[in-house]
Design goal:
- With about 60 residues, this protein is an alpha+beta fold.
- The protein is built from 2 helices and 4 strands; from the N terminus they run βαββαβ.
- A two-stranded antiparallel sheet has the order 1-4.
- The longest helix is centred in the first third of the chain and has 5 residues, at about 15-20.
- The chain binds iron/sulfur cluster (2 copies).
- The site of one iron/sulfur cluster has 13 residues, from α2.
Length: about 60
Amino acid sequence: MVKIIEGKCEGCGVCVKACPFGVLELINGKAVVVHPENCRKCGACIRACPNNAIEMGGN
Ligand code: SF4
Ligand code: SF4
């Protein structure tokens, strides 16, 4: 499961575009994990985020 570190997220939307599976959306200027069940843990969003605001959690 990916986790957004809200304090670091600046709402640029790069991760939303980077995710091939539509897991993330921008809501009120922050990235939100809207479809965690679709996350393949590919890491694309983590690599794409310019602010290191995404981390991989457990399970
Ligand atoms: S790429 Fe990073 S800073 Fe930009 S919206 Fe996603 S989590 Fe936030
Ligand atoms: S790890 Fe991959 S599938 Fe999961 S949210 Fe990030 S880009 Fe999408």
